[in-house]
Amino acid sequence: MRATDLRPTVVVAGFGSEYRLDDGVGPLVASLVAKRCAMVRDIGPLADPLDLLGNWNGAALAIVVDAVRSGARPGTVSHFEIDVRLDDGLDVPSQHERGVTSTHGIGLEGVLRLASVIDQAPHRLMLVGIEGASFGNGVGLSPAVQVAVPGAVQLVVDLIAEVT
Amino acid sequence: MTHGTSGARTVHVEGIARVEGEGSLRVQIHNGRVTDVALEIFEPPRFFEALLVGRHFSEAPDITARICGICPVAYQMSACAAMEDAFGVHVDDRITSLRRLLYCGEWIQSHALHIHLLHAPDFLGCQDAVQLAEIDRSSVERGLDIKRTGNLVMATVGGRAIHPVNVRVGGFYSAPSPRSIAALVEPLRRARQDALETVAWVAGFDYPDIERDYRMVALRDERRYAIEGGRPATSDGRQMSTSTFADEVVEEHVARSTALHARLDGRHYLTGPLARFSINRDRLTPLAGAAADDAGLGPRCTNPFQSIIVRAVELVDACDEALALAESYVPPDEPAAEVRARRAVGTGASEAPRGLLFHRYEIDDDGMIVSARIVPPTSQNQLVIEDDLREVAQHGIDLDDGQLQLRCEQAVRNHDPCISCAAHFLDVSVART
Question: What letter does residue B118 receive in the DSSP assignment?
């Protein structure tokens, strides 16, 4: 293993861009969690899952926070845990199944597989999604998503408390 | 997927891994001869050039950066160069050096990613980087470490690793502190050593014995390996100004592609690492030049499969250059030169990791963009990729369908197409009759 830096036991990464309206909610929630919990390291904002590598190393818990579009009511906060052993794969459509591939992008599942092979996977991995309403150009969250932020932060704080 | 009927065979693959987007590749073979090759691109056009019209000139670096997540600096630098050309802005050497450092960061992260995670698996019988890590963990880790250093350079100079926010026409919004740049020195020193190991690693791969008669185009700088600037030059000795190049490159739309096809003097041409290396080998840093020697590269490289070696040599060059720039960093007196807009036309070009990236803008009296033209590397290379496929398929005609399909996929990946910049690419089918 080449990366030998000591890491905090909990890392939170918010994915998204603050310049795409609700897409900025992930980084915002992650930064607010890090302010409340001294033991948490905020490694975002990120746009490329590959950048998780090198930041997960040694983490007891890794949390990824991202805006989602599932058809739920905007502001809905959901979460689930990914089995880091990936015995059954992620229960999400692959890039191919979603009709997209990328020369330069490796999705979360690929990153987790790669991290497992090189012993950098976190012991536990949680995903937290906040349903977005608008992903156009601009700064600021839609009202429904803005209202959901405190609850999302509390959820992440509670998840951390459960694990650590 | 293979379909067989009497007298005809079709190999069809959905979703080539490590190749971007939405399109297809069709190879027709008849009586043992490749009769037709078509790169069919059906990615919807992205209309960036139209989006720019009516926007203020100062927005161009940030808007065009969004064309690509892997080479945003290239778009920013070409846009800045074009605007500064239009307005007659002189950028001092310290700002130029800082731009080069930022651009080296992009090269480092882009090349490290492509070499170690996307291209190397082809040569080692692996489906992807995960399989590669299972058999050669240290090489994958080395690649990730190098990429991380590239990201660090971009975040330090550009404000963040993807879509940097510190670039403006005339220079930067703020100059990094000497302390923050000094913190790059040790990581860059390690990355440079790692890059040398990567050159040795890829030089040991087995390569198909194919040489292509490319006409190559790359920027050439008087003093150093062209990255953030230079003048367009061809492998047959022609040199042009950027504005001349703009006039002479003719783009045309073809039915099978939503990306334009580019020609110079009526002929297609190759841009990218092979072209840069072949035109600028004498401009590599001594360390990178020696690495090229050790890897067995001659004065030019025309085997497309060996583009991975050239990228590794360029990785050494970028790390070496970035290290020298970081060690000698002195902040500019002002982070940006003064820019006064006027009615004008400007052109700018730089070397994106995948090749020459050209911008041209027409600006009105109020500094608003009247017209924009952007020619990305991948659209320039599309016809060459088709030619490569024709040659590679013919060369491998005796391979079974699975092997031939893999060889064709490799032929595409040799050019590291960034199809989000130009178009997207997906399916391969080989039809034999």
Answer: I
Whether B147 sits inside 8 A of A50 (CB atoms) is yes
| CB atoms B151 and A51 under 8 Å | yes
Find the CATH number of the domain harbouring A23. 3.40.50.1450
Please indicate, yes or no, if residue A1 is contained in any of the structural domains: no
Smallest CA-to-CA distance from A62 within A13, A15, A116 is with A13
Asked whether residue A82 is assigned to any structural domain, the reply reads yes
Instruction: Output the pTM of the full model.
Output: 0.85
Structural domains counted in chain B: 1
Give the SS3 label for residue B347.
strand
B351, amino acid identity: E
Q: Does residue B79 belong to any structural domain of this protein?
A: yes
Q: Which residues of B touch A96 (CB under 8 A)?
A: 14-15
CA-based nearest distance B147→chain A, Å: 9
B385 touching A (Cβ < 8 Å): no
Residue A47 in contact with partner chain B when CB distance is under 8 A: yes
Chain pair A-B, CB pairs under 8 angstroms: 82
Residue B178 lies in a domain: yes
Residue B372 is part of which domain span? Answer: 48-331+342-380
The verdict on residue B76 lying in a domain is yes
* B352 close to B81: Cβ distance less than 8 angstroms: no
pLDDT of residue A9: 84
CATH of the domain at B136: 1.10.645.10
* Two structure tokens written together for B184: 């790059």
For residue B41, the model assigns a pLDDT of: 61
Instruction: Quote the crossing angle between the two packed helices B137-158 and A108-117, to the nearest 10°.
Output: 130
Residue ranges of chain B with per-residue pLDDT less than 70: 1-24, 40-46, 255-259, 418-433
Chain B contact for A17 (CB, 8 A cutoff) = yes
In a domain? residue A95: yes
The number of domains in chain A is 1
Whether residue B235 is contained in a domain is answered as yes
Q: For chain A (length 164 residues), average pLDDT per consecutive 10?
A: 54 88 94 92 84 84 93 94 70 46 66 88 93 88 96 94 82
Domain hosting residue A44, numbered range:
10-163
Distance, in Å, from the CA atom of B377 to the CA atom of A35, rounded to the nearest integer, reads: 43
Are B15 and A101 within 8 A, CB to CB?
yes
Residues 6+ apart with CB under 8 A from B186: none
**Per-residue pLDDT tens digits for A53-100:** 888 887 899 999 999 998 999 999 999 898 887 665 555 444 444 444
Q: Give tens-digit pLDDT for B146-180.
A: 999 999 999 999 987 777 889 999 999 999 999 99
Residues belonging to chain B: 433
Please, which residues bridge with residue B12 across strands?
B429
Whether chain A has a CB inside 8 Å of the CB on B146: the answer is no
| DSSP structural state of residue B344 | E
Min Cα–Cα distance to chain A from B18, Å: 4
Per-residue pLDDT tens over the stretch B86-145? 999 999 999 999 999 999 999 999 999 999 998 999 899 888 888 899 999 999 999 999
